[in-house]
């Protein structure tokens, strides 16, 4: 199938450089009208400039596309709301939101100040919340929406010195899981991109020869896969350097202990059963876990459900 975004309107945050820039250009190349959002700050979130976003808009325009620049700080809901209103005034709809904006303030947890922890969470998590909240009713009313969160292997698996970043990047997966349930009847599909790429966020962290393999464009291929009309829902797509994989959260079937046996010693004694992955399942709602455990208990007591 050929993927087109003709007549679609997309908002891409953090689109002045790196992954966001690549995402915005690719969406425009395939027909989308694009809001190029970028505060224009440095990697740690300080400062602001409109130059990078405006350059992306001009690049899109030279290629025959349509785009507008916006300097909203994603951590400020009023600014984000005004950005969405500008998109509606310009094109009358918003079909795609790519939550890409982010900052880094890396330190080991013992040396990290709480302000640095809170600021990273504010941009990555609350920035995604703010932007999604601002477009949610628009997408619900038009009966169509595609939202992409941006996670990271640091969030999914951990990375030394990135407790703030990792916490925020895991949190957006939890946000996705609930929004999927609330948005499905309106054809709002929410997915997560977990990229690794050579950008200004990682340029001094990765050897040069490897950095050259990790192009933003290879990640953008995954982004386009997650936000077109036939996109999946509740999917974590990991990509980098031309590689593509999925991440899923599974739960084992587990065990049941009757009340008189519910001790930590008995849990440890059956640890291999607790951790038996042969019957694990991917749960898609929190209530499914409750239902599983309650059914085990009901079976023990002979209660029919």
Describe the fold and architecture.
The protein has an 8-stranded mixed β-sheet, sandwiched between helices. The protein is globular, with a radius of gyration of 22 Å. The protein has 305 residues and is α/β, with parallel strands linked by helices. Helix 1 links the parallel strand 1 and strand 2. It starts with 8 loop residues before the first strand and ends with a helix.
Write the layout of secondary structure elements.
Elements: E1 9-12, H1 18-29, E2 33-37, H2 51-62, E3 67-70, H3 77-91, E4 96-98, H4 114-142, E5 145-150, H5 153-157, H6 163-183, E6 188-195, H7 208-211, H8 216-226, E7 236-240, E8 243-247, H9 264-269, H10 271-274, H11 286-301
Parallel strand pairs: 1-2, 1-4, 2-3, 4-5, 5-6, 6-7
Antiparallel strand pairs: 7-8
Helix pairs in contact: 1-2, 1-8, 3-4, 4-6
What would you report as the Rg, rounded to the nearest angstrom? 22 Å
Question: Regions with pLDDT < 50 over 5+ consecutive residues?
Answer: none
Structural class: alpha/beta
Query: What share of residues are in beta strands?
Result: 5-15%
Provide key terms for this protein.
305 residues; alpha/beta; 13% strand
In short:
This protein has 305 residues and is an alpha/beta fold. The protein has eleven helices and eight strands.
């Amino acid at each position: 199938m050929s993927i087109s975004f003709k007549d679609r309107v997309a908002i891409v945050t953090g689109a002045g450089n790196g992954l966001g820039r690549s995402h915005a250009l690719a969406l425009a190349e395939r027909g989308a009208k694009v809001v190029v959002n970028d505060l224009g700050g440095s990697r740690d979130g300080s400062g602001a400039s409109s130059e990078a976003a405006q350059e992306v808009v001009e690049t899109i325009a030279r290629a025959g596309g349509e785009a507008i620049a916006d300097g909203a700080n994603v951590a400020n809901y009023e600014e984000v709301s005004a950005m969405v209103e500008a998109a509606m005034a310009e094109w009358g709809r918003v079909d795609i939101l790519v939550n890409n904006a982010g900052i880094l303030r890396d330190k080991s947890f013992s040396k990290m100040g709480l302000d640095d922890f809170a600021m990273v969470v504010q941009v990555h998590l609350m920035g995604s919340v703010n932007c999604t909240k601002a477009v949610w009713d628009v997408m619900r009313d038009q009966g169509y929406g595609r939202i992409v969160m941006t996670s990271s292997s640091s969030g999914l698996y951990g990375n030394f010195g990135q407790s703030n970043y990792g916490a925020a990047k895991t949190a957006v997966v939890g946000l996705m899981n609930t929004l999927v349930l609330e948005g499905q009847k309106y054809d709002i599909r929410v997915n997560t991109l977990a990229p690794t790429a050579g950008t200004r966020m990682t340029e001094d962290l990765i050897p040069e020869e490897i950095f050259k393999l990790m192009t933003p464009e290879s990640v953008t291929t995954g982004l386009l896969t997650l936000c077109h009309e036939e996109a999946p829902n509740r999917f974590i797509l990991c990509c980098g350097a031309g590689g593509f994989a999925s991440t899923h959260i599974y739960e084992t079937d587990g065990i049941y202990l009757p009340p008189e046996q519910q001790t930590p010693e008995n849990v440890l004694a059956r640890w291999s059963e607790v951790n038996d992955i042969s019957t694990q399942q991917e749960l898609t709602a929190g209530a499914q876990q409750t239902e599983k455990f309650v059914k085990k208990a009901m079976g023990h007591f002979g209660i029919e459900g």
